[in-house]
Amino acid sequence: MGKFQVMDHPLIQHKLTIIRDKNCGTKVFREVVDEITMLMAYDVARDMPLKDVEIETPIAKTTSKTLAGKKVAIVPILRAGIGMVDGIMKLIPAAKVGHIGMYRDEKTLEPHEYFVKLPADINQRQIFVVDPMLATGGSSIMAIDALKKRGASNIKFVCLVAAPEGVKALRAKHPDVDIYTAALDDHLNENGYIVPGLGDAGDRLFGTK
Ligand code: PRP
Ligand code: URA
What we know:
Elements: E1 4-6, H1 10-20, H2 26-44, E2 50-56, E3 61-67, E4 72-78, H3 85-89, E5 96-97, E6 99-104, E7 111-117, E8 126-130, E9 133-134, H4 138-149, E10 154-162, H5 164-173, E11 178-184, E12 187-188, E13 194-195, H6 201-206
Parallel strand pairs: 1-11, 4-5, 4-6, 4-8, 8-10, 9-10, 10-11
Antiparallel strand pairs: 2-3, 6-7, 12-13
Helix pairs in contact: 1-2
Bound molecules: 1-O-pyrophosphono-5-O-phosphono-alpha-D-ribofuranose and uracil (URA).
Uracil binds at residues 133, 135, 192-194, 197, 200-202.
Pathway: Pyrimidine metabolism; UMP biosynthesis via salvage pathway; UMP from uracil: step 1/1
Pfam family, one: UPRTase
Organism: Secundilactobacillus hailunensis
């Protein structure tokens, strides 16, 4: 079974409180989502393998560590996942970015896929799927289905706020996927929104409501 980790570092918790506040405007919301994602990426990348390389410092020859493993792909689930791409890119600038477009039907809460564009070698990459919200789990499950259908196997899912219902569903459908979240909230309301949550992540990031 993959990992499930709530990243409760004080800086992450503090910043999450800023974006949960309904009075937080689009500019600050976007900036703080970026900062939280960068803080999370630091720990999500903790198990990236290293290898030894020989280098020469200004003083002496030495053996030092460099990243060894698979190359990375960041895959945001559109739209809201876009807000989490730069935070990871700041730490892993060589990562390629794939996009999966997904929207939830407001009535049925069923996800609908409308766009998939991935790096050609996605099956050889360590993949970070990013989406601020894990609610029913429908969108993340379908996005990871789409990745696996194309040969991807090494997948981590990174979100900001998760509902217990979504965590359970995602772990049941994709038990191999590690899940990282900044918060595990209480429940989903009758409209499929996470309580207390932070509202509609896409609308808050892009100012569309
Ligand atoms: C939101 C969010 C997730 C999804 C989570 O996207 O960004 O993708 O809902 O809900 P689920 O776990 O129940 O599937 P939304 O469908 O609102 O699309 P948007 O990002 O384009 O606003
Ligand atoms: N999608 C969101 O953007 N917010 C929620 O609370 C649930 C799904």
